Each structure stands twice: as C-alpha cells, then as structure tokens.
Amino acid sequence: MSKQTLTTIIIILVALTAGFFSYVYYQSRQSGQAGGIVEVIKNIFPSGDIVPVITPPPDPSTTGGETGGETTGGELPVAAIPRLRHISTLHIAGLIPVERERLLTNQPIIENTPSGAQTKPSTEVVTAVRYVEQETGHVLESFVDRNDERKVSNTTIPRIYEAFFGDKGDSVIFRYLNDDDRTIESFTGSLPPTTLGGDELPEFKGSLLPQNIPWLSISPDTTHFFYLLNFNSGIIGTTALINGEKKSQIFNSEFTEWLPQWVNLKTIALTTKPSASAPGFLYSLDTGTRAFTRVLGNISGLTTLVSPDGKQVLYSVSSNNDINLRLYDVGSRTVETVSLKTLPEKCVWAKNNINIYCGVPNFLPNAPYPDDWYQGTISFSDALWKIDSSSGNTTIVTSPEFELGGASIDIVSPMLSAKENYIFFLNKKDQSLWSYALE
Predict the structure, then answer these.
(1) 310 and 264 in contact (C-beta within 8 Å)?
(2) Averaged over 273-291, what is the pLDDT?
(3) Which of 62, 177, 279, 433 has the greatest number of CB atoms lying within 10 Å of its CB?
(4) HSE of 258, CA atoms in CB hemisphere, 13 A
(5) β partners of residue 385
(6) Assessment of whether the complete model's pTM goes beyond 0.85
(7) How high is the mean pLDDT of the chain?
(8) What is the dihedral of CA 400, 405, 410, 413, to 10 degrees?
(9) How many C-beta neighbours within 10 Å does residue 91 have?
C-alpha cells in the first residue's frame, strides 16, 4: 500500500468518526437530557456491550444528597445514623424503649381504585424511645433510624425530677416538688394512642398519687408499680396499677431507708440505702406470700442489680476509697469477682440472664463510693462494656471518648430495646439522651 493511499484512508476514518459523534451530540441535545449521550450510544449498539462512562445525574425527586439510603422529606438516610447517637440534648427525667408502628414512606400510588374502595396504608414496626423533658414535662419520642424528635404530649408540668413509664410507654408517673420545695408530688396519667401520620397532640389525663413517696419501681411488664410510704414510725410498701388503682399493701418495716427494684412478677428486691461508711443489706420480697428473705448483708457501700430471674446479683463493695464489682449466685451462695470497676446503677441485665451491659469509668479516682458519685462531687467518663456472667469474660462495646473525639459520658439509666439490638442511656453530666446500636 502506497503512502498516499494510507493517508487517504486515515482522513476518511477521521471524517467518519467526527460525523458519528456529531450525530450523537445532536441526538442528545434533541433528547433534552444530561445523560442523553449514553442513551444514544445504547440505541445504536442495542447489544449492551458498550459500558457507559458518563453517569446520569441524580434523580431530582430524592432529597438529602446521599446515595444508598432512603430519604424522605429531608430526613437523614438510614446510613447516616451513627451507631453511637446523641438522640436529644434536652434534660431528660426518664425514658423507655418502645416498639412503634409508623407509615411506610415512598408508598406507591394505587391507580384505578374502584369507586368507594379504601386502601389501608402500609406500615412498619420500628424501635423507638419515649422520654420526658425535665423542664416542661413534655413527652417526646424518637425513632432509632431517623433524626425526628417529636412531641407526643405537650401538657406542661414544670420541673420534673424523675419520670417512670408504664403500660409500655403509654402511661407516665411524673415526680416533682410542690411549690413549697419540700413536698414530693407524684402524678400518674395515660396517653391516648396517637394517630398514624397525624399531627394532633393528645391530651394528657391523670391523677395525683399519695404525697411524699420517697421511692418507687415499675414492674417488668410495666402494668404495675411498687412504692414506699412513711407511716407512723416505719414504712409500708404497696403495689398498684400504673393509674394508682387496685392498691395492695405487701410490706412494712420499722427501717425506712430502702431502695426497691421490681425484679420479676414474684420478686421485689429491697436494698438499704448505700454509704461507704455503713454496712448494706439486700432482701427479697415475695409479692405473693409476702415472705421477706435476706440475700446479702454487712457489705460497705452495697448497691445491687438483680438478674431478671432473681438467681444472680451484680453488686458493688466499697473499700479503701475504691469499688469492687462482684456477682453473687443466690442458689449456690457463691461469689465471683468481676474484673471491671463500676457501680450496678450503671448496668442493665439482658433477658437471657447472662449478658450485662455496663458503663465503666475509664479512670476511677480514689473516693468513698457511691457517696461522692451520688452527690455529684465526682463524675466519670465511661466506656460501654459487656459482661458474660456465665464465663466472667468482659468485652468493650464502645468508647464514646474515642468515637466522639474526647466527649465524656457518665452512663446512667441504661435500658435495652425489646429485641436487645439497641441500648439507651442518659449522660449524668447533663441528662442528655443517647443510644448505641448493638447489632
């Protein structure tokens, strides 16, 4: 082949290539779409062998600018929710994990519906948490997979000290001081079911309980509560429905300094109020027979957390300005030392009666415990740990100080969701609400 012939062939190929891409460009302009070039190439080569290198623009119907996660109405996609989540910056008086039904987002439009026929919207059940704001008494709720804190009730009861949820989150007992700043008031009320997709806040209705209840505890099924009340020179213990009805006195004692924990339907644990300078005792109260049985005793700074089946006790011992954490087997009366140093008030048992999740201080200063921590003269920066009570093994779950770049959380009031895939807790430093996804 002569050099002149080769040059002619190259010129013809260049001209054909230029003509081809001019045609493609023209067709893409005609289509009016930014991704039109890719579409034209696909039409010319229908076999699909061409791999496009130009990606179409994002669908303008989506919001949030994220890919790989569902977005609706400006909500963050699921992938954007961190495992360790700061749910609310409000000062929280009490919380309860709940399972809530909600409308599915992005539901398809149903066309050609017969006249008069109604279609039920699709729903899903999702883990959420309900909580009470200290300053106002407003009840709020947040789902675990969205940043969507919303009010459930805006009935105002100022300066709530603590709140306890009953009826799986549909009832609340508010605890606060009267106008004289001395008398303890307890108000119980129920929240009517909320309307799916509705914005109307239900009215909170309820009634006052007896004044000056020092301590109370909610039953595991959240239908009842047990409360203590000073009477003459002693104290009495009474069970009642969450609304305060159907009272039954099941306990009385000349000693008045008790902390109750309703362990299971048959058992209420009563621990003497702790101090590093005084021996503490733990007793078991049978709700049916009213038998009162000593479990542990003569332990300085004793604080306790009984397992759901009542067969084990996680407890702390104060000695030489230090804490020792131990496990007591009620049946065999044996004691095992736990390698971690923390207080049982910072822990929660799993339903399997084996796993325990605890906030554990990264550094434990010398002090009389639990006195100084109760009084707020000492504060902790915790990591979240898991204890296997059957083997004694301990595993760190997360360290907020590491994950959040130095943030300090003093974990209190930990609670597990129904499926135990989330743990919720408060930061004692500011009473803010947090969660961590365990799975």
Answers:
(1) yes
(2) 97
(3) 433
(4) 28
(5) 358, 396
(6) no
(7) 83
(8) -40
(9) 16
Residue pair 121/147 in contact by the 8 Å Cβ criterion: no
| Whole-angstrom distance, CA of residue 161 vs CA of residue 165 | 14
Max intra-chain CA distance, the chain = 122
DSSP 278: B
- Give the C-alpha separation, 29 to 184, whole Å: 76
Please state whether 87 falls in left (phi above 0), alpha (psi between -120 and 50) or beta. alpha
| Rg of the chain (C-alpha set) | 31
420 vs 165: CA distance, rounded Å: 18
The whole-angstrom separation of Cα 322 and Cα 279 is: 15
Residue 261 CA to residue 17 CA, distance in Å, equals: 83
Residues recorded for the chain: 439
d(CA 62, CA 370): 52
Give the CA angle between residues 295, 296, 298 to the nearest 5°: 150
Q: Are strands 303-306 and 312-319 parallel, antiparallel or unpaired?
A: antiparallel
- What's the Cα-to-Cα distance from 35 to each of 52, 55, 132, rounded to whole Å? 10, 7, 51
Residue 425 near residue 412 (C-beta atoms within 8 A): yes
On whether the CB atoms of residues 250 and 238 are closer than 8 A, the answer is yes
Tell me which DSSP letter residue 419 carries: T
3-state DSSP call for residue 214? coil
What pLDDT score does 193 carry?
Answer: 72
Task: Check if the beta carbon of residue 67 is closer than 8 Å to that of residue 79.
Answer: no
Peptide bond into 414 cis (omega under 30): no
pLDDT in tens, 376-429: 999 999 999 999 999 999 999 999 998 888 889 999 999 999 999 999 999 999
Is residue 329 scored above 80 in pLDDT?
A: yes
Token pair 């081809």: residue: 20
Q: Which H or E run includes 401?
A: helix 400-403
Which two tokens mark 406? Answer: 């130095």
Q: Is 123 helix (H, G, I), strand (E, B) or coil?
A: strand
